[in-house]
Specification:
Helix content is 65%, strand content 0%. It has eight helices and no strands. Helix 1 packs antiparallel against helix 2 and helix 2 runs antiparallel to helix 6. The N terminus is likely disordered.
Length: 249
């Protein structure tokens, strides 16, 4: 991503940019509402899928398809306001990569974005449960603590960070709504963990004992591996998009 400088320039976003930088409260609202909507899509489509079929493969197909379309629309809609992070790993990676100057979220914005994303994720899970008549808050019993699942989260998050920031380095952010949504849809299937790749979403999904849930005891491990994945993604970014040397005259 190619974020805006500490609240003074428009915040470039996946999909579009605004001519003037939105106020921080608008950015926070976009992150909260966007993350809530994303989790509502993930959890709600999971509930719907399990009600329609007992085939786990079809359930995952329905869940991943809804997530692809929902995420793409949310990035396109809210990207011009906040950058459409919806993900503390993305926000922290963006802050880290631009902390010494240049376009990017400031520390103040980061301190606002991350809580907004977490609150939004929890609200989205509760909303999905409410829409389908499930208990509003019921801790998930879906254990996801196995080592191969944790490895899947490292891979999923590293790929996501590499994709987003790689698009920025290559001046291709206009393709982010399609590219990011497509990657998440693919990662549902090629990673063992079904690609949470998002600490806020992981926390929110602990609040629902449905298809998309994750047991609270598994949350810390997933978040730790997502942060490791973010570091790996930034390292790969630095390696692959290393500035070239000018040719000698």
């Amino acid at each position: 991503m190619a974020p805006a400088a500490a609240g003074t320039e428009p915040h470039p976003a996946p999909g579009a940019t605004l001519p003037q930088a939105p106020p921080l409260i608008a950015k926070a609202a976009a992150e909260l509402i966007g993350t809530a909507a994303l989790v509502a899509v993930v959890v709600g489509s999971g509930i719907q899928a399990t009600e329609l079929t007992k085939d786990v493969g079809l359930q995952l197909l329905a869940n991943s398809t809804a997530t692809v379309f929902g995420l793409g629309v949310l990035i396109l809609l809210l990207g011009p306001v906040s950058g459409a992070h919806f993900n503390p790993a993305v926000t922290l990676a963006e802050w880290w990569s631009t902390r010494r100057g240049g376009a990017g979220v400031s520390l103040r914005e980061t301190a606002v974005y991350v809580p907004a994303q977490i609150v939004g994720a929890i609200a989205g899970a509760i909303l999905a449960d409410a829409m389908f008549g499930e208990p509003l808050v019921k801790w998930s019993t879906h254990d996801r603590s196995a080592g191969h699942l944790l490895l899947g989260e490292v891979v999923a998050t590293a790929g996501l960070i590499l994709l987003i920031f790689g698009l920025a380095r290559a001046d291709r952010l206009r393709f982010a709504p399609v590219a990011v949504a497509s990657y998440i849809g693919a990662a549902y299937w090629f990673t063992s963990s079904t690609s949470f790749a998002n600490p806020a979403v992981t926390i929110g999904r602990a609040f629902t004992d449905t298809f998309a849930g994750i047991a609270p005891s598994s949350v810390a491990g997933f978040i730790a591996m997502q942060l490791v994945g973010a570091v790996v993604g930034l390292a790969l970014l630095a390696l692959i998009f290393m500035p070239g040397r000018k040719a000698a005259a």
